[in-house]
Structures are given as structure tokens and as C-alpha cells.
């Protein structure tokens, strides 16, 4: 299973765009890249998933370069409620045995 | 999206007792469910993969006799912590995927916080 590396923490202010980059050098051909958000004492929540290039949904964008060895989660105009831990995971398309890395603690300040 | 529910959301028990945690997929069938454990300020650690109608597959270092997993139906998996001790106190989270959306999205339960006194 591909291992991921993310920054331990990031600080931002309300209204700013936040970009969190994840490295996954050993990503396999069949692996997808998925990002989850977790608030304290809650289960993780799906944010976005992609395989290559760019994916955008109502809450975030995911940028994946051609070599797929990294990906960047972009959160537009964050608010205080976006303070959470963000996990980048790589795995097959059926969510099998997703292994969580350390995640990135995002702190949004007013 | 699909909903996964856990019960109880929190439980306190005495050392030596057993505790059962339920994980239900409310609006989809899940052949496979996953159980994670999360200690304070740490990431989720995969404990085992629960397969409907067969034995669970445990990750290395997880005692199968300590953490009994039963996946008797397509919508219910249970984790029983047997003879619980204070070091078993943790946040237990289950997840499941409908397996039909072709997105690999996992849906997680709300988590169950176990405190062993």
C-alpha cells in the first residue's frame, strides 16, 4: 500500500485559500487519491477523490500532476469551521484497506 | 451520501468486562466493513477487515481473540472488546463502502469512545 506524507500542521486565516500537499511516491497504477476530513471525536468525512489532473466539487479542488506522485487539496476561502485534520489516502477504487497517514492539522484563525 | 451508524457512541466499563460495539450501514449493503482504532492525537489505525459471512482479517499486532469481530449480515458488523483493560480505552471507528459507486469512497461511522476504568 502506498505511503503518504503530509505536513504535520498548517495555520491559516479566515477567507484565505489553503493548499495541502501530499506526497505518495509509490502510488500504484490502480490507486486513487482520496482526501478525508476529521473533526475531534468524529469519524472521517469524505472530501474529494481523484485519479489524475484536476477534480473539483462544491467544497474543494484536487490537483494531481501527471506523474501522480503527489496531490494538492485546495480549500477555497476557509472558515473557522474548516479547522480539522485532513488525511490524504491512496488505494484501490473500492476503498479496500485504506491506511491512514498522520494527517495535517489545519488551524483556521479569525 | 450513504450512512454508517455506530452504537454506542460512548461507553464506560470496568476492567475485565466485555464491550460490544455495533456498526450498521443504514441505506446500503456492505459486504466489507473496516474497524479502526484511534488514540488521542494520533491517526486512525486499521485493526481488521470484516467480511460478511466469513472470518475477519486482522492486521498485524491486533489480537483476534481480544477483538472479536462478527459480520453476520450485509448491514451489521460488531466489534467486541473482550476482558477490556484501561489500555484498550480508545476511539473505535468503523467504515464501509457500498461498492457500487465506483468511487472507492468509504463512509465512516460516528465513532465509539471506550473508556475502561
What is the overall shape of chain B?
Answer: globular
Count of separate DSSP helical elements of chain A: 0
Structural class of chain B: mainly beta
Q: How big is the Rg of chain B?
A: 14 Å
Instruction: Give the overall silhouette of chain A.
Output: globular
Please give the alpha-carbon distance between the first and last residues of chain B: 37 Å
Strand order of the largest sheet of chain A: 1-9-8-3-4
Report the portion of residues of chain B in β strands.
over 45%
Q: What percentage of residues of chain A falls in helices of 4 or more residues?
A: under 10%
Number of strands of chain B: 11
Quick structural summary:
By secondary structure, chain A is an all-beta fold. Chain A has no helices and nine strands. The mean pLDDT of chain A is 92.
Please give a structural write-up.
The complex is a heterodimer of chains A (110) and B (117). By secondary structure, chain A is mainly beta. Chain A has strands at 9-13, 18-23, 32-38, 45-50, 53-56, 61-64, 70-75, 84-91, 104-109. In chain A, strands 1-9-8-3-4 form a 5-stranded mixed beta sheet, with no helix packed on it. In chain A, strands 2-7-6-5 form a 4-stranded antiparallel beta sheet, with no helix packed on it. Chain B contains no helices and 11 strands. In chain B, strand 5 (45-51) and strand 6 (57-58) form a beta hairpin. Chain B has 117 residues and is mainly beta. Classes of the chains: A mainly beta (110), B mainly beta (117). Chain A binds chain B through residues 32, 34, 36, 41-46, 49, 87, 91-103, and chain B through 1, 4, 6, 32, 34, 36, 43-46, 49, 91, 93, 95, 97, 99, 102-111, 113.
